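Hey L., structure's done. Input below.
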Amino acid sequence: MADTKTDAPEMSMRERVKELTDKLEQGLKEVFESDNYKNYLNTMAKFHNYSVNNTLLINQQKPDATLVAGYDSWVKNFDRHVKKGERGINIIAPAPYKTEREVPIINPETGQPILKRDGTPFTEKKEVTIPYFRVTKVFDISQTEGKELPTIGVNELLKDVDGAKDFIESLKKVSPIPIEFGETNGDSKGFYSPVDNKIVIKDGMSDAQTIKTMVHEISHAKLHNPERAVENAGKSKGTIEMEAESIAYIVCQHFGIDTSDYSFGYIAGWSEGKETDELKKSMNTIRETSSEMIFRVEGSMRQIDRDRHKDLFVDKDTEFLDVTIETPFDTPKQKEELKEKTKTSLKDKIKEKKEELKKRDKTTVPREKIKPEKEVR
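Output:
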């Protein structure tokens, strides 16, 4: 795996991550200023912005959904058609209706109803709008076919990565929830399902695309899980995706995997402000989460390397950096959980060592049981 760290060994993790976020911001500026991006915006403007409740409904029914629209909207606005047999995603749509009702006559000066002598208000017939909601169906772009939508250079990563197997194994260890590899719908590379509490990564992708997608979905699991719903209440879908992909870019770049061909276009596509101000608002979250993930992945990879060459280390040197050690990024609750994991891990190692010694003792004949050979006279 290539090393893209700067030549200055004294550069801290904080400085390194800042260097990468500055590079990310510059890359996004170049995307925003391109003609291709303007064409992309014109198309994206035709998609409806869904409420928080509908966004949650869409995520529960189809976690890998990216662009959704109604059946007729796909035909009229995008020249695409829903594939035969596809099941729609249920959302709640406003369906207000108008009717005539007797309403009190309001005094424009006081804002109060004008009353008769008997205390009841004067009334008049007026047409009023009654709020009403109904269930309707929308479909994700992966459920449609037809004219291609314009893109902004979100190119699939095709590179192989040296040490990819260890990197992928380390990401599985640092992930807060299980990661599975399998089939995903449409063009989705992977998704985080808060309902099933798992991450699914598309099987058969390149090393670079697999690793980047894993970091992206792990970021969702860490930052955008149900336990942080209150904290994330004001965040749009665009902000959430921008945070996850920014972290994926920084972590991958740190380990020598350049994802700019994919990440810059992806982040720009989800940016609602269409400028880097939105990125800056989430910068602390992005930097802290990136630093933590880099720290844990490096620790896990060292552990894997030592496990592979454990015969080269003496016993006293086997307590090496582990993903279960306490880190500067942990909350008090996480620290307690990590201590318990460490205790369990050490107990398992001690038990394994004892079993190994027992087996060795059984195959070794005690010195006192060895009969001396008779002296030859």
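The first helix runs from residue 13 to 32. Confidence is low (pLDDT under 50) at residues 2-9, 313-326.

-- N.
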